[in-house]
């Protein structure tokens, strides 16, 4: 049984529609991530699940209980959720311990649960400190401990790492995933950062202009995107123009590409114009049999460098090579596509 199910949620004000028939579900114990650009509707989805916003129509169920369905609208405090906000929303006049305890019930269990949360989130050394005395990572863990204190069945996270630097994000994302899994929680996170989704989530989706384009396994979002927007948003990649041949292959400026076709709903025939998705690992150096390209931009990533390459026809692709190769913008190289499956979309 799905612990969280959202069915055909529509939400907006006046003539503006923020969410358009949004549907997704999470099984018990799953961590889901909804990705999308700013203004796509990610946070509005969380607000509807939390009960902060009331949709115009649709159904939301949590742990088998309908919390929204037209006339049914369960108050936020009775939905069994915990939430970590983008700015952490810690009370500045309360210590870490009192922030975590805020809203908890009384009795002997309270102190035991407090101690458990402080230990679980590694806050023992700062339990008597105030929020302004904490590092960004400590604030994030304190906010998580407070969200978990009341035994929620569902945890909602709104851009939880956006205020942290890149190195800290990766470390904390791994810690947060471990904490959520140790508590056997179900969680839904929203972010515009695909790398956070890759590190944290079991399942995910991409939302654009209030509509979920694809809700799927994280692997499938990257390797089997169902539309061009998902293909370009999830992971580095480029869409190269091509034409279908009589043999069912794809003719491009990088030669004829062959492989298993993952074309979604596209039924391409000989002569059809298409776009083929190429990821950085699909482009390799080949000084003897490659096609000419020039280095346009580069991003150093430690073990590898991500290059943007301009092909002879003016199209661009990305490639990631070991950083010791150290090409510079303007350098000429020879490359070819080494691809096992073709993800194809209709030409624009």
Q: Gap between N and C termini, in Å? A: 40 Å
* Strand residues, percent: 35-45%
Structural class, by secondary structure, is alpha+beta
Strand order of the largest sheet: 7-8-9-3-10-11
What helical percentage do the residues reach? 10-25%
The rounded Rg comes to: 24 Å
What is the ordering of alpha helices and beta strands? EEEHEEEEHHHEHEHEEHHEEEEEEEEEEE
Low-confidence stretches: none
SS summary, helix count: 8
Main sheet attributes: strand count, strand direction, barrel closure: 6 strands, mixed
Strands, count = 22
Oligomer: single chain
Gross geometry: globular
Overall pLDDT, averaged? 90
Tell me what you see in this structure:
The strands form 4 sheets. This protein has a 6-stranded mixed sheet with strand order 7-8-9-3-10-11, sandwiched between helices. Strands 14-13-12-16-22-15 form a 6-stranded mixed sheet. It is globular. The protein is built from 8 helices and 22 strands. The model has no long low-confidence stretch (mean pLDDT 90). The longest helix is centred in the middle third of the chain and has 17 residues, at 166-182. The chain has helices spanning 42-50, 96-101, 108-120, 136-148, 166-182, 194-200, 218-223, 228-233, and strands at residues 2-13, 16-27, 31-35, 57-62, 65-69, 72-73, 81-84, 154-158, 186-191, 203-208, 211-217, 238-244, 250-252, 255-257, 260-262, 273-278, 283-285, 291-300, 304-311, 316-322, 332-337, 341-346. Helix 5 runs parallel beside helix 6 (194-200). A hairpin with a 2-residue loop joins strand 10 (203-208) and strand 11 (211-217). The protein is an alpha+beta fold.
